Amino acid sequence: QVQLVESGGGLVQAGGSLRLSCAASGRTFGIYTRGWFRQAPGKEREFVAAIRRSDVNTYYADSVKGRFTISRDNAKNTVYLQMNSLKPEDTAVYYCAADTTRVVVTTPGAYDYWGQGTQVTVSS
Fold first, then answer.
1. Most buried of the four, 3, 78, 96, 109, by CB within 10 Å?
2. Strand bridging mode 118-123 / 10-13
3. How many CB atoms lie within 10 A of CB 84?
């Protein structure tokens, strides 16, 4: 089993920044793809960003391109999401996810492991 623990959420004004962290523990040797998703009240969970273990490429939803940056520290089994120029529409619970797949998938159902989520609230 793999455990994922997010941290770094909070309340920020529009235009501000936050950095989320997701630490993985347990049987992490098979994990290849790490992702971030978010879910706003009354909406479906949606893809935000993803990164693969040995890949210099990163993948983003159109709504966050140019504002969010995903990165990973393989030695620490930790993935980060730097969020800049935050907007009120970014308000959601943010979840990190992990999977053994080598293909970057943007659908939540493709990921086997999930964190508990961290709330991000952006005030206008």
1. 96
2. parallel
3. 14
What does DSSP assign to residue 65? T
Pick from 114, 27, 37, 111: which is nearest to 77 by CA? 27
Q: What is the torsion angle, in degrees rounded to the nearest 10, for the CA atoms of residue 114, residue 3, residue 21 and residue 54?
A: -90
Q: How far apart are CA 42 and CA 45, in angstroms?
A: 10
φ, ψ at 60 (rounded to 5°): -140, 150
Pairing between β-strand 33-39 and β-strand 10-13 as defined by DSSP bridges: unpaired
| Pair 12, 32: CB distance under 8 Å | no
- pLDDT, tens digit, for every residue of 27-36? 988 888 999 9
**Comparing C-alpha atoms, which of 42, 49, 79 is closest to residue 64?**
49
- DSSP assignment string, 31-87: --EEEEEEE-TTS--EEEEEEETT-S-EEE-TTTTTTEEEEEEGGGTEEEEEE-S--
The identity of residue 57, as a single letter, is N
Mapping DSSP to helix (H, G, I), strand (E, B) and coil, where does residue 94 land?
Answer: strand
Is there a contact between 93 and 38 (Cβ–Cβ < 8 Å)? yes
pLDDT tens digits for range 75-113: 999 999 999 999 999 999 999 999 998 888 899 999 999
